[in-house]
Amino acid sequence: MPAYYLEALTVTLGLLLLLAEAFVSSKSKAWVGVAAAIGLVFILAFTPFAIGPDASPGSGWAKWTLWNFYQFDPLSRFYKVFALVTTILVVLLAIDYRKILARYTDHPGSENGTGEFYALPVLACSGMMWLASAKDLAGAFVALELVTVTFYILVAFMRRNVGSLEAGVKYLILGALSTGFLVYGIAWVYGSTGTMDLDLIAGMLEDGRSASIPLTGLLFGIALVMVGLGFKIGAVPMQVWIPDVYQGAPTPTTAFLSVGSKASGFILMIHFLEPFLSSELTRGPVLKLIGVLSIATLLFGNLAAIPQTNFKRLLGYSSIAHAGFLLLALASGAPGTDNGLGSAQVVSVYLATYLLMTLGVFFILAQVRIQRDGESITDFNGLGQTNPTLALALTVLLAALAGVPLTAGFIGKFLVFQLAVNAGLWAAIGVAFIAAAAGFYYYLNVVRAMWWVQPGQKAHVTLPLISKACVAVLTIATLVFGIWPQPILALLK
Amino acid sequence: MLALIVFLPVVAFIAILLGAPARLTAIAAAAVNLVLGTYAAFTWKCGCWDFSIPVLAKPAMNLAFGFPDGMSAVMVLLTVIVTLAAVLSGKAPEGREKLYFGSSLLISAGALGAFAATDLFFFYAFHELALIPTFLMIGMLGRGDRKEVAWKITIYLGLGSIVLLAGLVWLANLTGTFNMGQMVKAAGTIDPAAQKGIAALLIVGFGTLVSLFPFHSWAAPAYASAPAPVAMLHAGVLKKFGLYGLLRLAVPLVPEGMNAWLTPLLVLLLGNILWCGFVTISQKRLDGMLGNSSVMHMGYIFLAIAALVAFPENPLAKPAAVLLMFAHGVSIALLFGLTDRIERSTGSIDLQDLGGLAKSAPTLAFLFGIAAMASIGLPGLANFSGEVLVFLSAFKGYDPTKGLGPVQIACILSIWGVVISAVYMLRAYRNIFQGPAVKSTESAADLSLADRIPALLLILALFAVGLYPNLLLNLLK
Fold first, then answer.
1. How far is the CA of A280 from the CAs of A38, A137, A212, A215, A275, in angstroms?
2. Beta carbons of B428 and B372 less than 8 angstroms apart
3. Cβ of A26: how many Cβ atoms within 10 Å?
């Protein structure tokens, strides 16, 4: 099966859901969500059979010009699976979150306004999947915009909630600004090299034609593209939108932003940087740029997270902090080899572990928001007494986010440190240690609230069936992959 | 098949989570582990306990357990003994049995994993695994201002662990492997400048975990606040991880670096023995006194490490350190266990409030007396053989023609610690058990049979090693 069928199926699913949504009773729009999840699981089941043109050179589709824009390698497959899994979990999260969505879209009791919330993530998912395969900057830009425009709607979805609208406006304006940077950067790269195909650029940088490339212009273009992508992944100094937007957006959107959007930013960054990192001409300055971004992001994300009192906002800063670690892996510039993990693979492993932990936390946060009507750290008070199993799961997930050993979070951080040590980035490693120590503090702050503080008058929190199953699976996966990360590594081979 | 011993408490923990009766499951698991662990420790030389499954291909990392030397075997033995005593003597508050016994098992599993691990990654990871239930238990079930205390120990040990991690990563990077056996083989290849840096990180990192002066201020309040099994397991077993780490990694791998820090280390350990000793004398509560005394006694073990650093061929220093680690672990666990008894039967552990308890609770008084004598270092009990060996080891390699070296001077000063121990222990004993009975002690209940079992188990270990130290010393050869 040609790989692009996956995107085609996903887009079709999204459009069908939008159509069907009009005919579903306004009492139970959740069925749209269930259909979306089932459809995506179905597409996920096809991913092992997707192949690129090299696997079947004789067939007619392999000769399409499409393959000038589209590539398929293990990394692409990994990020397609990643996008699908994220979207499935986000849709499931949205089903359990529909009470709040309904309250701020239509009148409570009617789910009239919530149906699109299940269809739009599917469309964003197709954009993320395309991004995983993009090898032409124009195609990548279109896919990225599909994701971003969908998010403009998703962030401002609760139209009767001021916070959501404010977040929507901020995301729209800053998103448009970053798009401007990105396009301007692409133009400079195109102007310097004469092509937008990343393979062709790689070829040019390797052979004699590199002498004719105006290096300053090219580096300027790269820097601008990095600014645009830095917005997607939440790197300093393009992180200013994150805390406000994360706090204001509906929780499923926040989860999707912090996992899906970040991952698609990273895969595009990996593919975009590949030709420039393999050429001696540009490697030095590019690595230096990423290194500086990484140090700034680590410092800002972790130190600014310390005084936070709103848990959702804290997760925003945590998302910045993790972007710092991911950038550190990229800054090491290690090429992947047959038996070793390169920067791209380490970023992928880290993101996979990040997916498990972050989405698990968001599932719990969403229910605390619904049942205790608040998102502050104090709203987690006494959870260890009222629902110890839930508190235990959240403790494991937060410990994993902090990077406690024997959880998946440690494996990710460990691999990043390993790369950085091999690359000799001592300044960044020092900063990363401070960052990890700060992480300990602010994540365990929530653990402290859960176990050491009395619940007082706070309501009892119980998870509905879907959330309970998802949290259980994600928590157990966090522990299992902490000791046995082989399955994730196998996916990258 | 050492993995069996490490994971048995974890399996029991899961069983408790799923609804098995908490206390019974914990006791059964600890008892089985005592038998298995003792057998394993005394047969460690057969090499048949090794266990390894690969986790990562590159960098090569294995979930591997084994006995690289007798020190591991002794520490495993200590852990299984104290674990059984801890779960036997613990009494969970109503409705919190799952948490109480489950956490105790997890701490035990973490300690066993750390002492048995032969892979650097899991060596570190299992210790962290044990810390988290420690923090939670103090924060939730502790006494006094438990929240502040728990937060303090979390921050202190969290930061200590990170400093330690930095040192370990540096070490692994230079030796190029996580296999601790292979690391030691690559020992000679580390250049002196790096050695100095690594040694500093390891001394501060491991030192914070063992409450080395001046990184010790978390320890006494934490033990005073912790529920009895946590105090027993942490002070008795888990804290030894730092000393074990220094002996296992720092001394063989960065000898020159350690030597460069010898004088500061000696000053700090004298801080432990003398400074914390005087602090201990001034304590008004029994739990605070025991917490500080446990900080103080760490100084002796650091002295043995310093003797080994100063004179690497020292044949006595390492056995002395291991013997004293074992003896201190058993005796402090016994003291914390009995303190909990005193508090439960009289409702107070304030030294001023108590008196004459020996009349109403003679067995308790007798057993506590033995524990106190052990802690002071009376001959016949394990601590004596440990401390004597430590002091002797400090004079190994001593050349009378050159005068006293820094280690010998530190040793002479630290012997005063024995006097300090006698002062605070005997005074506490007199205040609690002798003199006229007061209201709270008049009708205090004595130890029941079920309460005596854990105490007798620990006392048996103290006497066995005290009268026949070769029991452990043979394992270390």
1. 47, 22, 15, 12, 10
2. yes
3. 14
* Beta carbons within 8 Å of B300's beta carbon, 6+ residues apart: B273, B324, B386, B387, B390, B414, B417
Q: What is the pLDDT of residues A339-360, one digit of tens each?
A: 678 899 999 999 999 999 999 9
Window 432-451 of A, Cβ < 8 Å to B: 433, 436-437, 440-441, 444, 447-448, 451
Inter-residue contact A72 to A3 (CB < 8 Å): yes
Residue B150 is nearest to which of A341, A395, A452, comparing CB atoms? Answer: A452
In terms of CA atoms, which chain A residue is nearest residue B55? Answer: A484
Break chain B into its structural domains and give their ranges: 1-259, 261-477
CA distance B30 to B36: 10
CB A223 within 8 A of CB A165: no
- Residues of chain A below pLDDT 50: none
Tokens of residue A316, six digits: 């925003």
d(CA A401, CA B207) in angstroms, rounded, equals 26
**pLDDT score of A338:** 67
B/e letters for A236-265, b = 16+ CB within 10 Å, e = fewer, are bebbebbbbbbbbbbbbbbbbbbbbbbbbb
Q: Which residue of A has its CA nearest to B59?
A: A340
B129 shares contact with chain A (CB less than 8 Å): yes
Task: Please state, in angstroms and rounded to a whole number, the distance separating the CA atoms of residues A121 and A128.
Answer: 10
CA distance linking residue B171 with residue B184, whole number of Å = 11
Beta bridge partners of residue B350, listed in sequence order: B285
Q: Which of A405, A485, A489 sits opposite B128 (nearest CB)?
A: A405
Distances A235 to A174, A226, A321, A380, B472 between C-alpha atoms, Å: 14, 10, 9, 29, 56
Per-residue model confidence (pLDDT) at position B172: 85
Give the closest-approach CA distance of A414 to chain B in angstroms.
9
Contacts of residue A404, defined as CB under 8 A and 6 or more positions apart, other chains included, come to A410, B128, B132
pLDDT digits (tens, 9 = 90+) for B400-458: 888 888 889 999 999 999 999 999 999 999 988 888 888 777 777 888 888 889 999 99
| Alpha carbon separation from B311 to A98, B255, B317, B399, B406 (Å, rounded) | 71, 10, 9, 12, 12
- The Cα A358–Cα A347 span in angstroms is 16
**Mean pLDDT of all residues in chain B?**
88
Query: The complex's ipTM?
Result: 0.72
**pLDDT, tens digit, 9 for 90 and up, residues B327-364:** 999 999 999 999 988 888 888 888 888 888 888 888 88
Residues with Cβ within 8 Å of B218's Cβ and at least 6 positions away in sequence, in order, are B152, B153, B156, B157, B211
Q: Which amino acid is at A301?
A: G
Sign of CA dihedral B205, B207, B210, B216: negative
Between chains, do A405 and B166 touch, taking CB under 8 Å as contact?
no
pLDDT > 70? residue B70: yes
Identify the residue whose tokens are 């970053």: A178
- DSSP per position, A152-216: HHHHT--TT-HHHHHHHHHHHHHHHHHHHHHHHHHHHHHHHHS--BHHHHHHHHHSGGGGGS-HH
CB–CB contact B147 A388 (8 Å): no
Q: Please provide residue A208's backbone torsions phi and psi, each rounded to the nearest 5 degrees.
A: -65, -20
Cis (ω within 30 of 0) for the bond into A237? Answer: yes
Cross-chain residue pair A405–B139, CB shorter than 8 Å = no
* Strand partners of residue B52: B64
Torsion, CA A45, CA A411, CA A75, CA A470, rounded to 10: 30
**CB distance A362 to A352 below 8 Å:** no
**DSSP class per residue in B122-137:** HHHHHHHHHHHHHHHH
Of B56, B151, B166, the CB nearest to A448: B151
What average pLDDT does chain A have?
Answer: 90
What per-residue confidence (pLDDT) applies to B154? 86
CA pair distance B123, B183, nearest whole angstrom: 13
